[in-house]
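Fig. S4 source data, part A: sequence.
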Amino acid sequence: MDDNKQKTKPTKTIDNGKMEDSTLKMEGGKSEQDDQSSTIKVQSSTVDLPSSKNDNPDARWYVVHTYSGHENKVALTLKQRVESEHLEEKILDVLVPTQEKIEIKSGKKVNVKEKIFPGYILVKMVLDDASWLAVRTTQGVTSFVGMGNKPTPISDSEVATIVKFTQTEAPMYKQVFAVSDAVKIVDGPFADFIGKIDSVDGEKGKVRVLVSIFGRETPVELDFLQIKKI
């Protein structure tokens, strides 16, 4: 499980997630006040697991490996197969965990659905020969995850954690910049300056860039849209 750990390397004191006052803040060429610190909020502290109208107390969640990039297609094909082969009592649910992210495309912010575990889907099923065969022979499936050749179920608490992660209210930015990246400022009063990223705030989509002004290295806070990698 990876994905979105932010790399930060602050060189100055940070108080409650805010850049200290000596940092210049530029948004579209204008100075702005410190944003109030924001945190990602989950809809509830207890998360209900996905359920099926044909819920079965013997069903467990299994992790199924697929070709990367084919997760949604595999999930759809498997659901269609369950219906056509009348396996609703054996295969209850198929889940492709995703999280909403903000991506910069052509200089614009676009909301996208990003898969949390590329190459994997979760299947709730009563494991027997028929259900195993239906899943394993679905086009795009490569294997079950487990010990040896035996699929190993994951706990409900693990699935609840995954579902909770998919339900975050505030979408985060896709991590496209990292500390020490060399960038060019493309907007604002420092346009065409070259600098180095000192810290990244993935929640707000901002970076702090060190640029040389009058022979001094000065930190400037910028939006993701105001810089590009070089």
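Fig. S4 source data, part B ends here. The two ends are 29 Å apart (CA to CA).
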